[in-house]
Hints:
Layout lengths: L13 H6 L11 H13 L5 E6 L10 H7 L3 H10 L1 H14 L2 E9 L4 H15 L3 E7 L22 E3 L2
Helix pairs in contact: 3-4, 4-6
Amino acid sequence: MSRAETPGVRAPSISALVASPPEARSPFLTVKEYLQAFRADYARPEVTAFDKLECGQHFQEPGFSSWEAFNRGAWRESVDLVQEAQPAIKRQFDDAESRGLVLRRARYVELPPSDYLVWEMAVLRERVSRGERIRVVVGQGRPSFQAPPPDGFPNSSFSGPSVSMN
């Protein structure tokens, strides 16, 4: 039984994590470290659900042609390149389906959304069309919010408006 499931023990809220001193938080990973950890966790055969909480309002994805076009300001090209990524996305979801792996994502978005988030919604729309379960949580007034997920996620709940992309 996880801490979040233990009667009388509440999982920490996101606001509690933000309020904790930086030295009490886990260190942030570099993009390279994150990708290594993600790939290792994703490949574990005992994993049946993969939950991802994304809070960053800006992110760089060098090497992803759609992001590179977006970064140059070529919006139409960037959306067209998302379509070109369909075979790779399809392979990922075919693999997940063959393993019985459920993919879920919560995306925290501040309003007004950054240009990166506007671009990312095109990518997420493609992922939803392949079966990923995505919820977008809209925040208010915290544009620099960057917190790690609480212990027990996804057993914790978000407060505030939430919309499904499904």
